[in-house]
Design a protein that fits this description.
By secondary structure, this protein is an alpha/beta fold. It has two domains: about 1-30; about 30-190, Double Stranded RNA Binding Domain (2-Layer Sandwich), CATH 3.30.160.670. The protein is about 30% helix and about 25% strand. It has helices spanning about 1-30, 70-85, 175, 180-190; strands at about 35-40, 50-55, 85-90, 95-110, 140-155, 160-170. The protein has a six-stranded mixed beta sheet with strand order 1-6-5-4-2-3. Helix 2 packs parallel to helix 4 (about 180-190). It is globular.
Length: about 200
Amino acid sequence: MMQAASLRTAARRFSSFAVLVTASLVLSGCAASPDIRTDYDRSVDFSSFETYGYPDELGTDRAGYSTLITQHFKQAVDREMQSRGYRYVEDDPDLLVNFFANVRDVTRLRSRPNLWVSYGYYGYRYGLYSAWPLYASGTDTVHYRVGTANIDIVDAERRQLIWEGVAEGKLTREVLEDPQPAIEAVVAELFSRFPGRAPGHAAD
């Protein structure tokens, strides 16, 4: 009996140790390619817009202040929008670009397919415009961190979302410590699926 109890205790300790090691490897190892999803309003002529800007308060701002994450996103979005011929203006833009990013803990159940779960953080839109629901799923017993980035493009006159891009994937320690390269890569990947260009601006 004593030996059996000792074996069970050792097994539990080894199991806990294995979970900690696995979680540590997930955080410090290389991240898999993010899951990319986009959708847009098929009735919209994206070539009818010439200018873009940003809402007064972006989804990545905190307590009325622009964060470093906001700056990283703006630089990456400016590069992509301007490469498509859209011109940035501060007053009365044709399009508004908003974005949001968050990090959350996820639990992975080995007995199920690996699905992603979304926690309904769309409050960052602050009632500025209406949108459609976007559903994701998932839980799995190994714990790790998942990052999600949203980019919204809005018809400023109608206050209507016309394009949305979502990127979601596991985060490495390197990304958490230096997010700018990851943000630039994700924004470029999302905009590779953006259907619009300014009038007269041909594809490269």
